[in-house]
Amino acid sequence: MVRQRILERAGWEIWRCFASRFVRDRVGVLAELLALLHQRGIEPVGAGEGWVSRHTEHRRWRTPPPDDGIIVGDAEPEAEEDGGTEEDSSISPSINGFDGQNSTPRHESVPTDPAEDLFGASPIPTGPTGSRVSEAQVQIEIVRLMRDGRPWTNADLKRTLISILPLSPADRARANFRPNEEKWEELVNNALSPSRTNSLHAKGLVRSAGRGLHVLSEATNMEKGERAQREDVRPSLPMEVFREVTKQQIDGFIHLGSRQYMIADSSAIGIELNPEALYEIEYRSTLRRLVAHVISVEGPIYDDILAVRIARAHGKDRTGRIIRQLAVASVDRRFPRTREDDRDLFWPEGAQTDTPFPYRPSPDGLRSHADIPLAELASIALPFVNASLSDEEVIQKMAKNFELERIRQATRRRFVAALSLAKRCAVL
User: What single DSSP character describes residue 101?
Assistant: First the structure.
């Protein structure tokens, strides 16, 4: 009632209905409300019209000939029923792939490509001006581009595909749910969405290489090589060349002169893990050896990441509070400990905690930039600081290193802290 009085003092007129009355006399309550609205001239918006949801798009489909993959949108019913109208006569020859004057196909055959063979279908010909590219056509071109072995973002693919795909005005129309994108760009997003059943991720052709990065899976390249050997066709990119190209591309992408980040392997030091004894006191000595190995290999490492490594090594899918406490309690005192962003950070033995630590890139997406300590981020910024770049330029260079299109406030705060550490060391 207090809120009602406040609104009424501001000029609002309140109609109140108690739940008990609505349960007893629903019809009477609704009639009273409708009468009040009608008395004040308030009528339903779009009265007399059919309700249309803004979350759906109505399209009329026409069954296309085999393998043409063309969608005809919003065709008139008269044109479908009467096959002799002028509209049908102008569309049919284009759909069938002929020019309408002779029986010569308009599109020449395209040589067989391993990327096309991955989908088990021939390439889709370029349609007329009003047709749209299909999802299969977009996926084929994406696989072709990813054969270079380097990580690709959605934005990089779109910038390249715009000059490759035969885009029509219908493709260049504004997207329904993303006003800043075009309709054909939705097909690129769908092709790289892990949650869609028909995407390249779901088909096993593409795998994630980090946040927002996609690379061609090695299984895809092996499949291309095996299929080419069965058909006595030389593959366009052998697996050995693919691995070498991938290495060259990644070496040019990462920070020079640094080793890669690797997850610690307990079998390397001969530790016999017993998941059933994880919470037992007698198992603490084994747990301390495992924790020391993880810190020595992956340090500096945050306490929550350390707990995840311990849990996964023992076959635990979840990392709860107890496992995290066990992991932190098992850290030996010889490993330095600092505090960053409300997280404990454990360093390898003998490491200096107040200077930049060599950055260890993770091309396979093992670490997010949010899980990289500030000391490693500072080593990325240090060369640009020595080159006398401005603070904003250094931050943009750091964002480019992680393929970030936008820098969120929390990420910028961490980059600024790393930049401050790099400046202190540059002065020293």
Answer: S
